[in-house]
UniProtKB/TrEMBL annotation, chains A, B:
Record keywords: Hydrolase
UniProt GO MF annotations: acetate CoA-transferase activity; acetyl-CoA hydrolase activity
Domain of life: Bacteria
Catalytic residues (UniProt): 293 (5-glutamyl coenzyme a thioester intermediate)
Domain (Acetyl-CoA hydrolase/transferase N-terminal) ranges: 17-216
Residues bound to CoA: 268-272, 383, 387, 407
Lineage: Bacteria, Bacillati, Bacillota, Bacilli, Bacillales
Protein name: Acetyl-CoA hydrolase
Family: Belongs to the acetyl-CoA hydrolase/transferase family.
Domain Acetyl-CoA hydrolase/transferase C-terminal residues, every copy: 324-468
Amino acid sequence: MEGISRMNNRIRHKLLQDKIVTADEAATWITDGMLVGMSGFTRAGDAKIVPLALVEKAKTENFKVDVYTGASLGPEVDQYMAQAGIIRKRAPYQGDPVMRNLINQGEILYTDAHVSHNAELIRTGIVGPIDVAIIEAVAITEDGMIIPTTSVGNSPVIAQHAKEIIIELNTAQPAELEGIHDIYMPGVQGKREPIPMTNAGDRIGTSGIPVDVSKIRGIVLSEMKDAPSLIVPPDEETAQIADHLLTFFRQEIEAGRLTKELAPLQSGVGSVANAVLNGFLDSEFENLEVYSEVLQDAVFELIDAGKVKVASGTSITLSEAYGKEVYGNLKKYQSQLVLRPQEISNHPEIIRRLGLISINTALEVDIYGNVNSTHVTGSKMMNGIGGSGDFARNARLGIFVTKSYAKGGDISSIVPMVSHHDHTEHDVDVIVTEQGIADLRGLAPKERVELIIENCAHPDYKEQLRDYYNRAVEATNNAHTPHLLAEALSWHVKLTETKSMK
Amino acid sequence: MEGISRMNNRIRHKLLQDKIVTADEAATWITDGMLVGMSGFTRAGDAKIVPLALVEKAKTENFKVDVYTGASLGPEVDQYMAQAGIIRKRAPYQGDPVMRNLINQGEILYTDAHVSHNAELIRTGIVGPIDVAIIEAVAITEDGMIIPTTSVGNSPVIAQHAKEIIIELNTAQPAELEGIHDIYMPGVQGKREPIPMTNAGDRIGTSGIPVDVSKIRGIVLSEMKDAPSLIVPPDEETAQIADHLLTFFRQEIEAGRLTKELAPLQSGVGSVANAVLNGFLDSEFENLEVYSEVLQDAVFELIDAGKVKVASGTSITLSEAYGKEVYGNLKKYQSQLVLRPQEISNHPEIIRRLGLISINTALEVDIYGNVNSTHVTGSKMMNGIGGSGDFARNARLGIFVTKSYAKGGDISSIVPMVSHHDHTEHDVDVIVTEQGIADLRGLAPKERVELIIENCAHPDYKEQLRDYYNRAVEATNNAHTPHLLAEALSWHVKLTETKSMK
């Protein structure tokens, strides 16, 4: 644990310096039936040691709480608290295999919501009242502002609407994070001003979260690092996806629809989206801007390579290796980074104004361009919709990427009808697989079918897809969106029964 | 036809006064393969007499054009031009039975798009180049601005991006329309400022559409009135839907989430949505604001009753009777009306900022809250998504209304899985039928099922729905969103085969 003078540097508000308590004591304040709001977004900047104390407390006490966060948290909540059986309901995003299984066994209720919508629900009290907020901080300022760590997420709105706040003051997070955040709160609907941002790197708010310090009940000291991200490196097929996309961008430049600097880039969570951004490394593109949600390894690689000049997001989620590099040299990146509340990083107003290029991962896509991002064979939740809907709906280019097959070829990612709809045909501009690219903008359903099957489907499934479509055209007398409803989901049924769509 | 001095009052730009041509001559400028942009939104302010001349020309000449408009047009285009076989592709909305049938027979291609997205597609040239624009106007100003008539729609962006423009100067449209429009163009993405609007009634633009007058190739004089709207009067069940909604609003006020003035109201196109607004007439609510897309009869009834103080939209579509009343007394309404481009009336930036209450009609809803607004049994296009997605996604309250049954009870509007997805579970806050209301905000899928079946389904179908859900829970071991994929669309299959879902 650090010395007192260094700690005073972190807790700069005089009234708070005697509020330090143990995690065990803070855990006693959390009781059965409470709604607990927590900091954290994709395993970054999340509450960690009070959750572990709650897991300990669960050994001798029966209780369950609802947990509302920014997005997915690390193992302390989404694995250990879940396993301990003390979470009744979870929202608005998760990505841990343990949490996922419990959701799909009906043990934990889960509400999956657009990343930009959560704050409105909290502000109006639809989600609430929040009994306790647990917010990880790197410091508390003289005037009582909470300085978040590696994510902002929903922490501002959670802190402001919670009845009381527990701070996890984390000295393992570098002090240089202070100054990276930009906290802008849009206020009550109907009394709002326009959000005064016209560039990805604009700073429009405060450097921390202003709170009523009398609500801060306790400060728990922590030295636990964020859990590293679990992304896997690019492979041949993700590189092909990136290549197709770069070719497409070059064509857009030629058509006068993009400039050499492209437009602010958004890239979704996970390995495929990270690999696609990676593709820019060896390209001619430079002076790029990132206006995204999660800043993953590839963003920092692009900054290091001098390709990206500014990156805005709501969290930084890095692999173990890259985390050491970035957090050991944070000063270097400080002027190029902005972390915002998730309702601002994902706000439709900004996404439409800046005209983002949005790249997100699809689980499966259908022949008309509808996208499933969340459910395996219609019923089982994977992670959640996250910000993909915020971005795809309002971006200049709503791009979805996926490999054309999964499970060694037993699954086709292109299907007659997706088994769950997260993004409708109206919100999907471009689909890319390792096979090729389908630019669907302005096209009628029948025009889309042709492109999606020919350019994106795996060769093993093309004939089967064409056959479905041709018979659907026949059976519906060539209706607007030909489907055979008795057969539309049969590929998924077959998969469940025989382990293959073939 | 009017006298010369009165006509000079309408064509006030000196260079244009000798541009008057016949509709037949203008029709000769439109040739095979062209993309024609036309004014008009839900049968209001649409091009009429050049389309009729094109129908005439088709008797002796083979040609086909693509037609891009604001939304649905009157019979001159969506009936007569369609019947004449001269439309290859239609976008972005339609609602005429003739057009609909041709789309569903594969005779006309149709692209159905969010109302707020069209302008971006035209601006970037994805839709384009527009060879000719045909714009109905009530006047052309001294400085060459086109003053639209009863709708603005996509006319500004179409006029600015078309190679040449034909004006239908319509003297049957009241001159007092001038001053009602507010034309604001957001400019190129990435170089935009915030849209400077914070109240439903704010005027932020010009009174007409600024164009390069040298592009105006001809002016055709017209005296054809808009086709009246075809809405049917409220009935017992739509009155019940309105009652449920008013009760819900009262509860929201009690919970402190709404004030007595509610929030700016948006109400979708058609009879059910009109009837719901009608319900406010006998209520205690007043000082209401409307920020909508189409202003139908009910909006004017509410203005007349002193309930609505300001109404903003992109078009005015009235029944024959109400049209006489309103257009005969337009002075009376002038200060309370604003007509905007559809990308502004439906802009996510404004919808989220003002926090609209959005009320749209569903064709069918499923047990998890997904909504189908467009397709009959999955394949056949009805009208289109229109603005429902713009509003539902970003509104304070995304409400969908529908009667719980159709075809005398042979169809349940609540089904296991919708046969086409326009609005996903993430975008649907509240569902209302004559049976009752389901407030889905913040709920997990399994919590939603209970409310939707119990409160909204018709009693004849409740048991059948519960049975599906219970068996899905069993078969999926209680997964997140239990579905029986082999059966999910079987109600629609049965309907097609036996004419009943029972």
